[in-house]
């Protein structure tokens, strides 16, 4: 293929649809600090997502950092090594020690049994991730948190619009954090949000994200500047008008992958979560030992054809220099995460991915699957006569 094909790209509505929003911003002379589009987007997202309280942020990482501040989390927090590095960076920036626990081999989310085994007298909270938009074992995590008196903050960066038993997955835990980065299903160029469960907590979060200001002359706490501006909010309102069509497009692309790639030995496709909706935020396949090529060989084959598939998440967070010295980061503590990280490959999925391009991606996988298995067999050792 001649053109580069990314693993994902933002949905961009027609420019003429955005112009009226820009005109209103120019006319109002309000570009940030909780302007009218900011207020409208918070209300619209609450309605769409089925939550009561949502605070917009300039990006998801600042939302994570602020959520931990708002919850007054200290000490040790149990989290997953199989995530984007911002999950653990948010702990570091709050002076919190991350404790890595292993993941479930099917869902790739934190394994509740491993969470419980990792609890120490210094543990104060759990930071799970709804990986690829698949809900964590929220009931079991809630039970563990209740027994041990722990807080729960969900990194829901991938979980926009996901429902479990008909209820938003964002309603679980003490708080959840969304990302509206350009790679996400719903984006505001950059952006994010904290979902909480009461008006008092939302006021606290809103103070923290705006330098701690309660009014023009009153600073009630040491805050940060993490506000979403009016351009981002306006783009979000426009995105929300298209969100159902975006979701339908992603579902159709995922279905085409599933039909074409089902049954290939050594290739594990995404499994539908139990009792939950799928938002198809990613299409991760796992390349096992039965597949003729390794994951990295398949990755290289795609790169050679300008298909920018991504080994997401690889390496594990626990393998980066900043964290690999932690006792919980040793590979023997994380055997499932280590294996999954070496197997996973996310195929391109986004609304503008056309059938012809997707067929080319599928063809690369099918050709790799037909490769002679001997290519992976080591040559026999030479024996001196």
Automatic annotation (TrEMBL):
Name of a matching Pfam family: DegT_DnrJ_EryC1
Transferase keyword on record: yes
Transferase among keywords: yes
Keyword terms: Aminotransferase, Pyridoxal phosphate, Transferase
Domain of life where this protein originates: Bacteria
Catalytic-site annotation from UniProt: 184
Leader sequence residues: none
Xref: SUPFAM superfamilies: PLP-dependent transferases
InterPro entries: DegT/StrS_aminotransferase (IPR000653), PyrdxlP-dep_Trfase (IPR015424), PyrdxlP-dep_Trfase_major (IPR015421), PyrdxlP-dep_Trfase_small (IPR015422)
Positions carrying N6-(pyridoxal phosphate)lysine: 184
GO MF annotation, one: pyridoxal phosphate binding
Gene3D superfamilies linked: Aspartate Aminotransferase, domain 1, Type I PLP-dependent aspartate aminotransferase-like (Major domain)
One biological process term in Gene Ontology: polysaccharide biosynthetic process
Family to which this protein belongs: Belongs to the DegT/DnrJ/EryC1 family.
Name of the molecule in the record: Aminotransferase, DegT/DnrJ/EryC1/StrS family
